[in-house]
């Protein structure tokens, strides 16, 4: 998608659609009033006949006469100005694409009454709103028509716009790539294919490198957690290490770790059939890591980044790992398996231990780890937990900057007792209560003293009930937060 800054009056531009924004209790923007005059007051008449008062998400859509320079005019309410933030900017952009994107190849947006600090998030939203997944439709993808977004504002300089547009383009491409991976069916996106995608990404930039371990190498390395989870599947596991090295030398070294369970049957603790559906999305954390690294290759921040993914299926084959098994993680800690459906944390134990060996200064992991997090926070918020308050706050602030909803949960020390094992160092599941927290407490055993944050994205990574700002399927949630966090280090 092409982004352009136009200094001309939006009312004079030729485009398929023109978009205006209006806050509650504020009059129409000046350019919208000029167009209304040219329409003979038709826009204002339609506003009077509707319940439009500038409430967030409310729209007025007007088809213009044949001799007009644009086919449609869209007026979108932004709610109260004091309540407008990055979340609303991202959603507003998605609403715009949803209303006029299917019949517009070029959209002109009057940004004159919106703070320029929301520009990048808005552009990301426009690109994300145009995303489509239809590769397995026999008729092919619908091919959203939107190709060009023209932003008009005299308050935005060309240099500022170009910088924000470049970042928005790279990030939105990373988000789209992440969504494609998560949307791909599990018979297509196997651990081996996920590793091939990582190798392909590493060839996009001279600053990227990729190392892949196969089943035997994983076993020889001492990754007992990932090995155990993979035993029940005929698909071989892969351990993926995709790294970014900046063009300018830097001592900063960050690891982002993503859970890569490409399909989760629950193993011998088999999920019910309905719960097994959509379990292709159990590698969303891994997809976020790949999408993030893909974006960083274009953005070239001054920090070393290691993307680490333990990739496997969790199946029920004859060699599947069992309740009561004891496995040894890469850092030497032993894990008693209580439930084979708590497999993501078992595989992540090796990935986190590997990150510690790299000598990184910070670790961020993302995982569709627990249904308990959905019970606690619903489908729209990710749970954030960690051992370092400054790092936790950095992640939460980054999420707020880009409009992704995250909420901190406590690493409650009283729950540690629940994951202590009588025969091993730790159990892979605790009691009934606080399941999202006890899962994070389990992961804490494998990060040593390194500052670490765990982001449970089980809720917001996949949408089964689409909204005005998220289509059905994968959302790419997490890429924008993590990229923003890294760019600010």
Structure, explained:
It is a single chain. With 489 residues, the chain is an alpha/beta fold. The chain has 2 domains: 2-153, 3-Layer(aba) Sandwich (Leucine Aminopeptidase, subunit E, domain 1), CATH 3.40.220.10; 173-487, Zn peptidases (Aminopeptidase). 35% of the residues lie in helices and 21% in strands. The chain contains 15 helices and 20 strands. It has helices spanning 30-38, 42-49, 86-100, 119-129, 158-183, 191-202, 215-221, 224-230, 273-276, 284-299, 343-357, 371-377, 389-402, 435-444, 479-487, and strands at 2-6, 15-22, 59-63, 70-77, 106-110, 148-152, 208-213, 238-244, 253-258, 260-264, 304-314, 326-328, 334-336, 362-367, 382-386, 406-408, 426-427, 452-456, 462-463, 473-474. The strands form 4 sheets. Strands 7, 8, 9, 10, 11, 14, 15, 16 and 18 form a 9-stranded mixed β-sheet that branches. Strands 1-6-5-2-4-3 form a 6-stranded mixed β-sheet, with helices on both faces. The mean pLDDT is 95.
